[in-house]
Write a structure and sequence with these properties.
The structure holds two protein chains of two kinds. By secondary structure, chain A is mostly helical. Chain A has twelve helices and no strands. In chain B, helix 5 links the parallel strand 7 (about 165-170) and strand 8 (about 195-200). Classes of the chains: A mainly alpha, B alpha/beta. The complex binds adenosine-5'-triphosphate and magnesium ion (MG).
């Protein structure tokens, strides 16, 4: 940009000092059409200096109620997941299908086959609800995204439950595909697959609550990702491999993992005559863990939102 | 409307980890006292790191001050941070929460979370998107928009569900003149129709001079001045600013130019001088005639801006403010 200085600036800038800026900024004119309403002309409080208004605190705007805001968050999160996470759902499904194909050579039907199919199906839930949700909340927190929700009058539970619910629903197609494929592969009955209607939301609540809590509590987003991955690996190793072959310590760890109870409940329904009492018991454990972990996640959200 | 008293916030020192050097503690808000009046557009002007965002985060209940008080419309925000969300709308500097939503869903969801029912939220969404000229982009995910469009979409979300106070942290970053005009007329309409108050963070002096009723100049956490833009400029009314841009380097062999050397603020090829009017006239005569002229690429002469005020008040960042 080589211009002769005279041509460049002198025409607008010769009057000193009254001449306005010689660098004629285009944005200046554009901004000027904002009307200047004198602040005091607008009704209401007088300037603090001379104000003797004795009115009490102003009325607050409405609070968003739990259920409608939960639905709004759920819808928004589900649409996010649809846009951005479909490839990951494929990954999760292929992973589970792949594991079942591998395990076909190892297990010899019966109880072990049931455990493998149930474990692989629940693994899809663990991948999305635990791993991806932990990552999501970890990143949201680190990038300041929680500020958006924290400056809206929305109950913390609505944000956590809405997101957890959306991630859990997002697992449905992958879990169903895995379960059906597993039944065909190992020759298991599909009669009681309807139990997934209870297994997915309850295991989903437990794992999503855990994922959300990990993501919100981890001091750094890398930790959140790491914890999510570890949780999923645990669900894989402890959920898919038949428990009969595990050493005692590992079995104990397995009992501590909430996904185990979803796996057990689902596995029992492949039997000739399932013991529905035990199924219900396992599902109740999932539900209890879900309630506790979602409560912890809600508390963690509250803590993370105001620093 | 909003009274801030002796607000102080210090970020603790960070211990160094491997690959991450330790950082000392930072007093990001240092004994700040402010009054924002109802219906005004009040600005916080300061260079990067001056503490503008830290200050507004304490006003919006997002961060707890170490000491001091914040009262908005009679509510104590330090004691009841959750009330802030029911009084004000906040547009933060980051917007990762909305990134993966479409423009339309971001606006609608934000409205619903401000307590609107579905019908109201949708109606307001449509009105705001139309007002800001975003209707054509409504179905696009915010992540896939350009920087300025993204900012405008987040601004739209902030407007759904009316609030008496709008807190906007650098709302026009990356926007072209058309988008900026849309922002300012939307702000102006809310002020004219509902008496809304606006707290605006900026480091752009032109923006500050043209849209703000009053401005607080922030430097290293302290308010170094607070007045109307024209009131502030009177402090430096006797001065004129001369900017000289050299083609390659300053012709120091010209004695008149060499004599100016110790009075300039240099940034690359640009020299900035603040002079009395007669002196300025002499400098212009020198550089536009004679030997210095050949080395000159461009020059401007201007009445003082808020940037000059900032520097005259002892502002630390030499090039921290933007004129654009
Ligand atoms: N989370 C944090 N931890 C430690 N120091 C911080 C943190 N956030 C900001 N700071 C420091 O506090 C000071 C003020 O930062 P702040 O973000 O408020 O500046 P700003 O005026 O908003 O700047 P910008 O114009 O870049 O947005 C800076 O020195 C910054 O380095
Ligand atoms: Mg900032």
């Amino acid at each position: 940009m080589v211009r002769t200085p005279a041509a460049a600036s002198v025409p607008d800038g010769t009057t000193v000092p009254a001449g306005a800026t010689a660098s004629n900024d285009p944005s200046e004119g554009e901004l000027r059409d904002v009307s200047v309403v004198p602040a005091d002309a607008l009704g209401g409080a007088a300037p603090a200096a001379g104000g003797q208004r004795v009115a009490g605190p102003a009325e607050l705007g409405p609070r968003a109620r739990l259920w409608p805001s939960l639905v709004a968050v759920y819808r928004a999160q589900l649409s996010r997941a649809r846009v951005a996470r479909i490839p990951l759902l494929f990954v999760a499904t292929f992973q589970s299908v792949g594991i079942m194909i591998l395990m076909r050579g190892v297990v010899d039907g019966g109880g072990e086959a049931r455990a493998v199919v149930a474990g692989s199906a629940v693994l899809v839930v663990a991948f999305v609800a635990l791993n991806l949700l932990a990552q999501y909340f970890g990143q949201l927190r680190a990038s300041g995204g929680l500020d958006h929700y924290a400056t809206l009058p929305v109950p913390p539970a609505a944000v956590v439950l809405g997101a957890a619910g959306a991630y859990a629903s997002f697992t449905v197609p992958g879990t169903v595909v895995t379960a059906v494929f597993g039944c065909l592969l190992f020759g298991l009955p599909v009669t009681h697959l309807w139990v997934l209607v209870a297994v997915i939301p309850l295991a989903g609540a437990a794992l999503a609550g855990l994922g959300a809590a990990l993501g919100l509590l981890a001091p750094r987003p890398e930790f959140a990702t790491l914890l999510g991955q570890l949780g999923m690996s645990a669900a894989l190793l402890l959920g898919v491999l038949p428990p009969e072959r595990m050493p005692q310590v590992v079995r104990l760890a397995r009992d501590l993992l909430p996904s185990t109870y979803g796996v057990e409940a689902f596995a029992r329904t492949f039997g000739e005559r399932p013991d529905w009492g035990l199924v219900l018991g396992d599902l109740a454990v999932c539900a209890a863990v879900g309630v506790i972990s979602l409560a912890v996640a809600t508390w963690a959200y509250r803590r993370a939102a105001v620093r | 409307m909003c009274a801030v008293r002796a607000l102080t916030k210090t970020y603790p020192a960070q211990r160094g980890r491997r690959g991450v050097p330790a950082s000392p503690e930072v007093r990001a808000t240092d004994d700040v006292t402010l009054d924002i009046r109802r219906g005004e557009i009040f600005g916080l002007l300061g260079p990067n790191g001056a503490g503008k965002s830290t200050l507004v985060r304490q006003l919006t209940g997002l961060m707890r001050p170490d000491s001091g008080s914040v009262e908005i419309l009679g509510h104590d925000i330090v004691r009841h941070p959750e009330r802030a969300a029911r009084i004000l709308a906040y547009l933060g500097q980051e917007s990762s929460a909305l990134d993966e939503l479409t423009v339309s869903l971001a606006a609608e969801t934000t409205g619903r979370l401000r307590g609107l029912d579905v019908r109201r939220a949708r109606a307001e969404r449509d009105a705001v998107l139309d007002e800001l000229g975003l209707t054509g982009l409504a179905a696009r995910p915010i992540k896939k928009l350009s920087g300025g469009q993204r900012r405008l979409a987040c601004f739209a979300a902030a407007l759904v569900g009316e609030r008496p106070l709008l807190v906007l942290d650098e709302p026009t970053t990356g926007m072209d003149p058309v988008a900026r005009r849309a922002v300012w007329s939307a702000v102006d309409r809310r002020r004219a129709e509902h008496g809304a108050t606006v707290l605006l963070v900026t480091h752009n002096v032109i923006e500050a001079e043209t849209v703000l009723d009053r401005v607080a100049v922030l430097d290293r956490g302290r308010v170094i001045a607070c007045d109307t833009p024209s009131g502030l400029k009177e402090k430096v009314a006797g001065e004129v600013r001369v900017d000289l841009v050299w083609r390659e380097s300053a012709p120091l062999n010209v004695p008149e130019v060499a004599a100016l050397r110790d009075r300039v603020v240099e940034s690359g090829r640009r020299w900035t001088l603040r002079l009395a009017p007669e002196e300025a006239r002499a400098v212009v005569a020198t550089v536009t005639g004679g030997a210095a002229f050949a080395a000159l690429d461009d020059f401007t002469l201007a009445t003082p801006s808020l940037e000059d005020v900032y520097l005259a008040l002892g502002g630390a960042a030499r090039q921290g403010l933007v004129r654009a």
